[in-house]
Amino acid sequence: MSDLYQLTVSINDTEYQRSVEPRLLLSDFLRHDIGLSGTHVGCEHGVCGACTVLFDGQPIRSCLMFAIQADGHEILTVEGLGTPDDLHVIQEAFWEAHGLQCGFCTPGFLMTLVPFLEENPDPDEAEIRHAISGNICRCTGYQNIVEAVKLAAENMKTPTRG
Amino acid sequence: MKTSIGEPIKRNEDPRLLTGKALFVDDVNITGMLHAAFLRSDYAHARIKGIDTSAARERPGVVAVYTAEDMGEDWAPGPSNVAPPPAEEIIFHSRTQVPLAKGKVRYVGEPIAIVVAESRYIAEDAVEDIFVDLEMLDVVADLEAALDPETILVHDDLDSNLAAHMFQGKGDYEAAKASADLVISRRIDFDRGAAAAMENRGVIAHWEEKAQHLTVWDTTQAPIPIRNGLAARHGLPENQVRVIAPFIGGGFGPKILLHYPEEIMIPWVSIQLCKPIKWIEDRRENFLATTQERQQIHEAEMILSKEGKILGVSHTFLHDTGAYDPYGLTIPLNTESHATGGYDVPNYHSEVKVVFTNKMITTPVRGAGRPQGIFLVERLLDIAAKELGMDPVEIRKLNFIPPEAFPYEREIIDQAFTPLILDSGNYQPVMDKAVETIGYHQFISEEQPRLRAEGKHIGIGIIPFVETTGVGPYEGARINVDPSGVINVATGVGTQGQGHFTSFAQIVAEQLGVDVSDVNLITGDSAEFHWGTGTFASRGAVVAANAIHASSKIVRDKVLKLASKILEAPEEELELEGGFVRVADIPRLSISLGDLALEANPLRGTVEPGMEPGLEATAYFGPQYGAAAFGVHAMIIEVDPETMMIDIKRYVVAEDCGRILNPLILEGQIHGGVAMGIGNAYYEQLIYDENAQLLNASLADYLVPTACEIPHIEIEHLETRSPLNPLGTKGVGEAGTIPVPALYAQAIENAFPDHDFEILEMPLSPNKLFEILYKKEVGR
Ligand code: FES
Ligand code: FES
User: Fold this and answer.
1) Which among B75, B430, B562, B606 could disulfide-bond with B71, CB atoms 3.0 to 4.6 Å apart, if both were Cys?
2) What is chain B's Cα-based Rg?
3) Cα(B490) to centroid(ligand 1), Å
4) Is B455 left (phi over 0), alpha (psi -120 to 50) or beta?
């Protein structure tokens, strides 16, 4: 059994201290050690984007990082974005525009889009498609995801939330 | 009655899915749970001389290792999912998948041993510790060579690699051919693709020794048949086995195989160890060991009159079933059902040979044999149109089944094992709609010549298709009014993103006058509802929806009857709205559905004879035969002659899938279907080498289209209701996928008018298109 290492990480504004094996993937740590199973894994080789979380505000693939690398950093997962009664404006837009079907890919899309929309408040369709080109969705054909992003951008301009 | 059917209602299930609160199989966590990993064959065909698991067993953290030998009497091949169809003179050799390979391995990825350990990490380490002594055998990798008498056998006890052989026909094809003006014969090739649902498979089994109860969470499209099969296998009464298919991250067909090896092994191990066991497939395993589809080779022929009327279609084809054939002839039967498209074809002949190879098993993948059939008939028709100098749209209109000819009998057996009858349709208006929406005539007469003059390779395609949907046998639903006023609906079909929580709720909401959000749908849990067959063949909106419709009508009757008594008003004067029953003219005379449910369950006193408590009903629906949907896809493309990348300028879908339950959900199904069709046509191909090794078993190498490859899709709806079910619905789940390969072929040929080539294979890719064009150039 390999040695365990201490790690302190802030996830969705809560601080966690855990001992982990150095080889433990960040995605497995979030899902199984912390119990935040909203972050999904579709490939574990960095292609599908389902495991995307924010790492110090930047979208990263949690299947391509070790948990220990998150020591001292801040992570935001889909659970930290909104709740069923208080959806984030992007979640709300996905609901409105039917931007999800099975919903497996959705957390990854949402986490990719949060920083994208912050940096690009007024994206055109080509920019949106480019922004989500690192996330695979097998169900929606992307069209309603694109619509959802347009809607979210629109709604973000008006200060009403949801 | 306030209508919610047909409204674009937002989905009930979304808030949970959007916030990471929906339960998927891999989210299940049970105290004391152990984790499994499989040792899989690295070779497609080899004899197992010995397996040494001792090092694996000694690794700290490993709890158990099992091989086929260790299973003793419990080792048995999986059941056959689909029996051979009742066709005359059929040959069918059933060889079903095994839980762990015994004696020999038959495909790369076949499980040889299972390791159970304290963590998945340790289990995977221990898999590496196992030593398997294999004697390599020749490999059956080529579909055509598989039937050579010299070729080695996949199943040693058979005389050849022939799994099945079947003929079907209508009219007298040979006689018709003798008098035909035009005979078009071509060879058509289809290769394999993956369903590639974003969620891989997974199974968790929890055997509780004291309760003698097995609970299984499974990423299956058919929880109830899985429950029944597990109960039978373990000699347990069905009520001691519960199978739950929670939220499933996409199905598309392969998640319906009844009893993958892992679905047998995980419950078996849980029973051996009396521990909860979890196995979650990884993406590489998904590529190797989840079923695939589409490989077929056809010698196809169409005979026509000089006016362009189809006199007959004939095809002799090979269908690759892979190493085993648990799914019978479902795929080739669908291919046959669709090889005459939406056309009036008086003479038809088919011969299929299903072949064993050393590759993964094939079972239906979204489309399920239909894209091959449509490709075949549409390609032959395109070639015929060229020969006859006819417009591709005109030759199609000339041949459509006319509306008055429905129900139209094909006189062959389809996947439901009944004679194929197309129930209803009106095809020409759908074609006209597509032609008009894409601006076909204006495009070919003005725009295209102009763009061609600018040197652009711009092409148009327009392809109609039928889809047989909504096959039986049956589904059921139980509906009850909860004292809280919530309406609970339990049904047996699983759900993999099709929006059943909402579209089914709309049916109930309409009957009972409640809000769609007050309808709580429970699917995929055999403890809640235990009759049914599953979600496949685009049948949810037909079969399950009509069962729900039937049971909600009964509940409505019960509500009216009881309310009439309590409110002392005749039933005709009552209306159901906003969760209340009220007397139409006297709104203050009303009672809520919740209170009525309480009244329906008296705790004291006496009741009338024959009384049933509660406001509850269970009903079933089984269609007489399937409902046939119809559609036309059209697109305009520009091909870059250097890179062969295709830019889709416009994509139009005109569809008629009967009555629409929820247009939002329906359009979503079409978008997703088209996207998968585009993958099938131009990006996705499973590449096996001559040793039947899969060369692109990762999402980095197998290209699932991203948002940059998929166009904006314009959809037009027309509606011909099915006369076969009270809701008038037809299925749509697979429609988007079916015509896309044929559409690509037609549009690409149209984009290169000066090149003499034909597209007769799928999938294509930019490379392949380059080769097809370049070869022709060199050949000239
Ligand atoms: S699971 Fe991390 S990118 Fe697919
Ligand atoms: S909604 Fe199913 S993969 Fe995107």
Assistant:
1) B75
2) 28
3) 34
4) left
